[in-house]
Amino acid sequence: MLPQQRLELAVSIAREAGERIVAARHSQTFNQQLKHGQELVTDVDVAVDTLISERLDAGLPGEQRLSEELAPDREVMRTADALWVIDPIDGTVNFAHGLYHVAVSIAWVSEGKTRLGVVHAPFLGETFTALCGQGAWCNGKPIHASRTTNLQRCLVGTGFPYRRDSRPPLMRRLLAILEHCQDVRRNGSAALDLCDVACGRLDAYYESVSPWDFAAGVLIAREAGARTGHLYPCPEGIPEDLYGENLLVSTPEIHAELGDLLRAADANELRTY
Ligand code: IPD
Ligand code: CA
Ligand code: CA
Fold it and tell me: 151-272 domain in CATH 3.40.190.80?
């Protein structure tokens, strides 16, 4: 199946998944549990992952998947030639609290490169899509990253891991951004943060996340003209498009400066703050 046809299939599945999420919000009957002691998961996350997996299997039988709830074994990133990467609900905490930054994220990766991505935000009525080498769109209209050149005017999105003990080191980065940029936003969906960079609402995004959180969004941002990359070298054996540690995605003109700022914060080298 051609990438364009795969994208159309992924969009129709993401929209059906979005309807399921909206219906669950209205009925308010879902259960909440903690995964690994601190990560919130609802039975809607699992139901939506099941729906997406069944639809992909029906349309493209036997293709491999990496999905947050049903198939989270990352070894497949090293071994599969081609892979669907799925986050059924990105923004689970928002979903459970009645907030609107919630997305379905589906990407298809082959030979180590993300070829297509869809991020569908059912409560916001926005469907972001991208095809490798062909551009990025929101509800079918082309989107473009901002062209901000001045760090002081940059609005920066980020997020924080569920593990409490991973948070304190990130405070240095946060302080550096608050000191040198316009402000920060923590909207609770990495996929939508990346789409917000893609359409120029945010100028930059940095975070360490799992492959399903960012695989689709990072392609959308890149295809919209943002520069995508990592603060530090990536390990061998995992496609860079699926390596989620120390991501930095921004308008091209500020990428180097922002990278220097965040690395200096990590090394505790900043003189200010
Ligand atoms: C989370 C969101 C959040 C990010 C977390 C992710 P989830 O995904 O993307 O913005 O800060 O690191 O785990 O758990 O809602 O699918
Ligand atoms: Ca997620
Ligand atoms: Ca999720």
Answer: yes
Please give the Cα distance from 201 to 220 (Å, whole number). Answer: 14
- Return the domain boundaries, the chain: 3-142, 151-272
Question: For 76-103, what is each residue's pLDDT tens digit?
Answer: 999 999 999 999 999 999 999 999 999 9
| Position in ligand 1 atom list of the atom nearest CA 45 | 16
Fold of 3-142: Fructose-1,6-Bisphosphatase; Chain A, domain 1 (3.30.540)
Tell me how far the alpha carbon of residue 50 lies from the centroid of ligand 2, in angstroms.
16
Token pair in block for residue 169: 């080191």
- Residue 257 exposure: Cα atoms within 13 Å on the Cβ side: 15
Question: Is the Cβ atom of 208 under 6 angstroms away from ligand 1?
Answer: no
Ligand 1 atom having least distance to the Cα of 213: 9
pLDDT at 256 over 90: yes
The response to whether residue 105 sits with its C-beta less than 6 Å from ligand 1 reads no
Q: Which two tokens stand for residue 248?
A: 């930095």
CA of 273 to the centre of ligand 2 (A): 31
Provide mean pLDDT across the span 5-33.
93
- From the list 131, 126, 94, 110, the residue with the least C-alpha distance to 216 is 131
C-beta of 49 in contact with ligand 1 (< 6 A): no
- C-beta of 190 in contact with ligand 1 (< 6 A): yes
Which pLDDT belongs to residue 135?
A: 98
Place 39 in a pLDDT band, splitting at 50, 70 and 90.
confident
Q: Using a 6 Å cutoff on CB, does residue 87 contact ligand 1? A: yes
